[in-house]
Amino acid sequence: MLKRIFPFLVIVPLLLASMASCSQGRQVVKPDDIVLVAPLPNSVVTSPLAVTGEARGFWFFEASFPVRLLDGNGNIMAEVPAQAQGEWMTENFVPFAAELDFSAPATSTGTLVLEKQNAAGLPNPEQMIVPVRF
Predict the structure, then answer these.
(1) Nearest-CA neighbor of 132 among 65, 54, 49?
(2) Is 84 a domain residue?
(3) For the domain that residue 71 is a member of, what is the CATH number?
(4) How many domains does the chain have?
(5) Residue 49 lies in a domain
(6) Which pLDDT score is estimated for 31?
(7) Rounded to two decimals, what is the model's pTM?
(8) How confident is the model at residue 28 (pLDDT cuts 50, 70, 90)?
């Protein structure tokens, strides 16, 4: 009996989490589209903040995509484009880098948001949301 119920115990929470993220007006990124090297989730960040990783070429438009740092209240502290460090017109992974300068926030936590470039202006672009500490 437990063998029959176990898959549902795993699948249902994943589906609920997926629906919750879409209902908040954002589409969470597929894990095989972008890889963040730095900063790691929940790490302490200081200014200037170096953001590095790899994203599939379709995440870029004109070799960049937006990166934002938010404080714990959702206020934008810094926003810059992440720049491709190689040929971006591909479906393969392309290294990227960005550097964000920011002042000390009033909150002890925040969020780093990497957003798939949305040249068409479609609603709910894919995002990678990374919690950080200050």
Answers:
(1) 49
(2) yes
(3) 2.60.40.2550
(4) 1
(5) yes
(6) 64
(7) 0.76
(8) low
Q: Is residue 40 part of a domain?
A: yes
Beta-strand pair 126-133/27-28: parallel
pLDDT, mean over the chain: 83
Q: Which residues pair with 38 in a beta bridge?
A: 52
**Between vectors from CA 118 to CA 133 and to CA 63, what angle results, nearest 5°?**
80
> Which letter, b or e, does each residue of 107-131 get, where b requires 16 or more Cβ atoms within 10 Å of its Cβ?
eeebbbbbbbbeeeeeeebbbbbbe
The answer to whether position 13 is within a domain reads no
Q: Where are the alpha helices (DSSP H) in the chain?
A: 2-23
Structural tokens at position 13 = 């929470």
Q: What pLDDT score was predicted for residue 21?
A: 37
Structure tokens at 67: 């990166």
Phi–psi pair at 22, nearest 5 degrees? -70, -35
**What is the extent of the structural domain holding 122?**
31-133
CB 110 within 8 A of CB 77: yes
Are the beta carbons of 110 and 102 closer than 8 angstroms? no
pLDDT tens digit string along 42-97?
999 999 999 999 999 999 999 999 999 999 999 999 999 999 999 999 999 999 99
**Cα dihedral sign, 5-9-10-15:** positive
